[in-house]
Amino acid sequence: MAAKIVPSDIDIAHQATMLPIDQIAAKLKIPVDALEHYGKYKAKVGLSFYQEQLKKPAGKLVLVTAISPTPAGEGKTTTTVGLGDALNRLGKRAIVCIREPSLGPSFGVKGGAAGGGYAQVMPMEDINLHFTGDFHAITSAHNLLSAMVDNHLTHGNALGLDPNRVVWKRVMDMNDRALREIVLGLGGVANGTVRQSGFDITVASEVMAIFCLSQNLKELRERLGRIVIGYTREKKPVTAADLKANGAMAVLLRDALAPNLVQTLENNPAFVHGGPFANIAHGCNSVLATKLSMSLGEYTVTEAGFGADLGAQKFLDIKCRFAGLAPDAVVIVATVRALKMHGGVDKKELKTENVAAVERGLVNLEKHLENIAGYNLPAVVAINRFTSDTDAEFAVIEARCAKLGVKAVPATHWADGGAGAEALAHAVIEATSKKDKKFQLLYPDDMPLWEKARTIAQKIYGAKDISASASVKTKFEDLQKAGYGKFPICMAKTQYSFSTDPTLRGRPTGFNVEIREVRLSAGAGFIVCLTGEIMTMPGLPKVPAAEAIDLDDAGQIVGLF
């Protein structure tokens, strides 16, 4: 395949011709008076309009996920955007539905989350930076509750909250390892109660999870009220509602809860709303945006974070469980390069043909396909093609997928936009038309919490078993007795491996998953199980992306991907 020179993402974005957002809305028959404009090219769609649309029949839902990520890159968001554009090219009314990027990765190492190449959502700089201020609102709502916790301790502590049992931290939308562990209240009595605390990144906040799962303002307020901020000395939970904080938190989130409408490079509609991390949270965009999109379009193309063992599993077992959603098809994104890495090839050797390594690495894709089949969902494999890929390498993938009854389709949307994903779009249309599939969850609500965690580890990761310290096992038992037994499990795990060891690529077996900490997210409605070395406040790399981001003399942003 001949190499095509593709400019940087930001150069492509600067050359793009965007339509006024009113024209994008008109494609979906959204009236202008239902829009709250944020400049010329972005708008929020009012919640009253959203409620009206729920009366309409829903379109088809396509979930885009991927194999376990590698440094070689997979291109999940670009595939989501490219597939949405391709479906529109085929005459389908398709809408892209993705998460908002966090500033942490944007200035750190991962980069943004607005797609790439000629498969991007626009305006790219806005989406990757402040956008419509949703993350700032979530940060403010979270930290308002934090401030009210310490204020309550200072002014008499009428609820008997034990300062040593406060579990509610503070957040900021930036990677800052120095804030992981802090001491509050230093400097004398006037500055509050001295206690140890810390910061998480905003996308790890329970407020973010609540925001993405709430379907109206009333539900948002109620969920915020159920947040457990700490415990009394008798271990009785104290909630945000006990502090009378949830009303004011909902006020700060009121405008943010409305979904954000933007466009792709090909001027097709896209909703970009909410953004919990997939390894430490549930990794999906808002239920509101997804349901609005399904009511307005024939096809909604959405994504879940990282590999299918994290993002897709949580999308299916948490988001779909709460929202009553059922995908019509799942697209698993893979690259020849990433499969070579799973087959043991060093990153420096990825451009050299190595059919045997591809064949070895296919065990990773195969396990993800088995998992999706376990949910009784049809799947399509999208091979995001690079110029170094060879026909012999692709033939191996195609043959293995054919044995599993799954189509593997090459796509070149990064270089060619929607035109490069038309074959993928045809395969997705065919997959969504299958009537013999009925979506099933991985586990029932009434399965005990410990068994839910074990089921995920064994059935999705391929683990031998799970383990935990005596204190963690006691926490499971306490949560079960306290009435949280019907909650789903949100596993916090490395994205790079099915196991908790990021260096074990491919399809490891015989490993154990140790659960080192359990956190209750009572407002979000799930239990977070932390495994391995998962950081809820990431740090910047030695050379952060921020060093290359700047303004030129004309005030235009440069160096942003």
Output the keywords.
single chain, 561 residues, alpha/beta, Rossmann fold, Domain 2, N(10)-formyltetrahydrofolate synthetase, Formyltetrahydrofolate synthetase, domain 3, 3 domains, 12-stranded mixed sheet, 19 helices, 36% helix
Explain the overall architecture.
With 561 residues, this protein is of the alpha/beta class. It folds into three domains: 9-133 and 256-432, 3-Layer(aba) Sandwich (Rossmann fold); 134-253, Domain 2, N(10)-formyltetrahydrofolate synthetase (2-Layer Sandwich), CATH 3.30.1510.10; 449-531, Formyltetrahydrofolate synthetase, domain 3. The protein is 36% helix and 19% strand. The chain contains 19 helices and 25 strands. Strands 1, 2, 3, 4, 5, 6, 14, 15, 16, 17, 18 and 19 form a twelve-stranded mixed sheet that branches. It has a four-stranded mixed sheet with strand order 20-22-23-21. Strand 12 and strand 13 form a beta hairpin. Helix 13 (336-342) crosses helix 14 (355-374) and helix 14 (355-374) packs parallel to helix 15. The longest helix has 21 residues, at 134-154. The protein is globular. The chain starts with 8 loop residues before the first helix and ends with a strand.
